[in-house]
């Protein structure tokens, strides 16, 4: 499957790949899109399966998000790039950088998720609450729960509305697909591969928000320790989505890192 994507900017400049969080889609990078191009970068952003404009495929019982990203880079003849991932996108970015280290020149992880730490009580409570809301058919309640959980106080009303729209769309796509699978008896699930963070060779920036959920702060500390060439910065004003909460500040950090 080819992921839905946007690609723009100078072909002479270094490529930056933007991987979205699990409550958004590729539109979350609107505040960075033109800024990165203006700085001379070629910029690629994509939607993972079940998000934005990329559907889920009942014909593929298992898929791997990192492999999907590599397949897209291959299709576009991009041999190496800076990869920046937010939350779930950061988890995928880690896998790409560890399994295909020659393809990733620099790695930016913004409030990244991980499979290498157990969930904290706060994350488990959130997941239980989200499941109950969705099982009861209260999609609006689940959307509100995600916006309140993952956007810090710096986010304005327009940002909260945009994130709510992206999350609602993802729920609608995924719930419809789940109903289709239930009716057919088929099974489709992501199949993340095992990887070792010690295999990451890229220069890395790990960003965490001081107001984020504890799980992601613990994840940032772990990533900074296990990735050899990593620098860790903590943003005192940030919740879970700093690139949306305070785009100007986040853009300055990203541009400085990419230089």
Written account of the structure:
With 259 residues, the chain is an alpha/beta fold. Helix content is 45%, strand content 17%. It has helices at residues 30-38, 65-75, 88-99, 121-135, 139-150, 157-184, 214-226, 242-245, 247-258, and strands at 5-8, 15-19, 42-46, 62-63, 81-86, 104-110, 189-190, 203-209, 230-235. The strands form 2 sheets. The chain has a 7-stranded mixed sheet with strand order 1-3-2-5-6-8-9, sandwiched between helices. Helix 3 links the parallel strand 5 and strand 6 (104-110). Helix 5 packs across helix 6 (157-184). The protein is globular, with a radius of gyration of 17 Å. The model has no long low-confidence stretch (mean pLDDT 95).
Number of helical elements: 9
* Global outline: globular
Report strand order across the widest sheet. Answer: 1-3-2-5-6-8-9
* Mean model confidence by pLDDT: 95
Distance between the termini: 33 Å
Helix content: 40-55%
Residue share in β-strands = 15-25%
Largest beta-sheet characterization: 7 strands, mixed
The helix-and-strand class reads alpha/beta
Poorly predicted tracts of residues: none
Over the alpha carbons, how many angstroms does the gyration radius reach? 17 Å
Q: How many β strands by DSSP?
A: 9
> What is the H/E string?
EEHEEHEHEHHHEEHEHH
